[in-house]
Specification:
The structure is a homodimer.
Chain A: H1 2-10, H2 17-27, E1 34-35, H3 37-47, H4 54-67, E2 71-73, E3 81-83, E4 89-94, E5 99-104, E6 121-132
Parallel strand pairs in A: 4-6
Antiparallel strand pairs in A: 1-3, 2-3, 4-5
Helix pairs in contact in A: 2-3
The structure holds a DNA duplex.
Chain lengths: 133, 133
DNA sequence: ACACCTATTTAGAATCATTATAAACTGAAT
DNA sequence: ATTCAGTTTATAATGATTCTAAATAGGTGT
C-alpha cells in the first residue's frame, strides 16, 4: 500500500481509495498485462469488493498514462488498449483471437530510422506485428 | 474511368456511380494520402459535384480495404485512419499536429522478428514512430 | 479535532464515430 | 423488359468515451 501512496504523491496525484485499489489491480502482480477499460472494470469488480465508477476508471487510467505508469498500445480497434508494461517493447496482434502478445525489444532486431523530420524528435518507435493462421 | 470499372469488376464489386466517384477521389492522383472517413467525405463533396451518403462512404472504404486497395493505419485515435498507399511501409505520427507522414521501408532498417508464435504466421509488420517537438 | 478549500468521485447525460436497418434503387443477366 | 441480388440511402441504434454538476473526501492550517 505504502509504495502506491508514495508513487501517487510523488506524481502529484492524491492517493484516494479508488486510485489505490486500481493500483493494486494494475500493479500488484509479477506479470504485466494488456487491458481495455471494459476489461479493467470487470477485473476491479472481481478482485476488489468495491464498485468504482466507470468515469473514475477512465480518469485514473488517463492520469496514470500521463504519468507514465501505463502505455497506450497503437492498434486499430474500437476500444483502446493499455499495457502495464511501460518498458520499451513491441506487440504481436493475433487477428483471429484479437489478443495482444508482448514482443521484447531483443526479439526485434535494432530499428534504425534513417529519415529525419525537421524540428521534430523521435519520442517512441513501436512495432505492431499482425498474426494470422 | 475504364480502369476503375475493371478494377471493381475484377474484385467482384459492382462498378456503381458512387464507387467510381470514390475511386476518382482516392486514386486519381500521383500522390498517395492518409485520410479519415470524415475527411474523405469532405473531399468527395468538394471534388465531385455530388453528395454520397455517409453509410456508402463507410461501406465502400471497408470494401476497398478488404480487397487491398486501402490500408488501415494502426494508431490510437478516436477516428480510423486509412492510407491509399498500400505498399509495405511505415509511419511517423506527429503528436502535436496530429499528422501522419509516410516512412518508406528503405528509411527503416530491415526488421527481423526473432520470436515465433506456434501455429501463427506473420501477416504484416508495421512501425509507428511518434514525433514530438 | 475542526473548518475550509480544492481535488476527486459519481451518476447520468451528452457526444461522436461507426454500424445496423429496412426501404428504394440499380446493374446485369435472362 | 423482367427479375433479382447487390447497393445506396436516410435514419435509428450502438457503444466507447467525455462532459456536467452535485456530492464527497484528502490535506492543510488553526
Amino acid at each position: 500500500m505504502l509504495k502506491y501512496i508514495d508513487k501517487l504523491r510523488n506524481s502529484g496525484l492524491r492517493p484516494t481509495k479508488q486510485r489505490l485499489q486500481i493500483c493494486e489491480v494494475l500493479f500488484d502482480t509479477d506479470k504485466t498485462f494488456h487491458f481495455t477499460i471494459y476489461e479493467l472494470e470487470k477485473k476491479i469488480k472481481k478482485q476488489i469488493n468495491n464498485r468504482i465508477s466507470l468515469a473514475t476508471v477512465y480518469n485514473t487510467v488517463h492520469a496514470f498514462e500521463k504519468k507514465g505508469y501505463l502505455k497506450q498500445i497503437p492498434i486499430n480497434s474500437n476500444q483502446t488498449y493499455f499495457d502495464t508494461n511501460v518498458t520499451d517493447h513491441h506487440h504481436f496482434y493475433d487477428l483471429k483471437d484479437e489478443k495482444l502478445i508482448d514482443l521484447e525489444n531483443c526479439d526485434v532486431g535494432p530499428i534504425n530510422i534513417l529519415k529525419k523530420i525537421n524540428g521534430k524528435k523521435i519520442k517512441s518507435v513501436e512495432v505492431l506485428v499482425k498474426l494470422e493462421d
